[in-house]
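Exercise 7b. Backbone tokens:
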């Protein structure tokens, strides 16, 4: 499972001109799902995102002191199969590593449900739809996260 996390002042997603989800200060999270994602991958991604310290504290010294939970921020979660694009051959990306919609849809819903268990405001787009995403990135701060990191030893 892959995620691209953006610290935002506000973000919204719409389908055919109708807003389906919007938040104020918080995180916009793009989620990519692959074929062999397990509950461990899902739990790692959700736990890491909820606890990632990427917001400034009141003093604003470093900008990386508090989590989205600490600030009671919102989370806008959007399914993004293109995070698994392969561009090694040719000029058109391939998506063989992205899970098929019938597999990815239920996994995405479980991701959203896991975020909702935090008690934070969680909004979403529409799975499989063509969406327009408006993001006011704060910082800017954008972080890529991959669940395979949970099995990778840390460098000293």
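Sequence design result:
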């Amino acid at each position: 499972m892959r995620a691209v996390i953006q610290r935002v002042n506000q973000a919204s997603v719409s389908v055919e001109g109708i807003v389906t989800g919007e938040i104020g200060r918080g995180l916009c999270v793009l989620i990519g799902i692959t074929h062999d994602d397990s509950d461990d991958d899902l739990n790692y991604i959700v736990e890491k995102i909820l606890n990632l310290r990427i917001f400034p504290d009141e003093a604003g010294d470093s900008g990386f002191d508090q989590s989205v939970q600490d600030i009671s921020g919102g989370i806008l979660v959007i399914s993004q199969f293109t995070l698994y694009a392969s561009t090694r051959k040719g000029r058109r990306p391939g998506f063989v590593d992205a899970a098929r919609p019938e597999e990815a849809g239920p996994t995405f819903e479980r991701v959203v449900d896991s975020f909702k268990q935090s008690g934070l405001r969680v909004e979403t787009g529409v799975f499989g739809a063509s969406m327009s995403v408006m993001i006011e990135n704060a910082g800017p701060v954008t972080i890529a996260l991959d669940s395979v990191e949970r099995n990778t030893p840390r460098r000293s």
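Instructor comment: The chain has one domain: 2-149. The helical segments are 39-51, 101-116.
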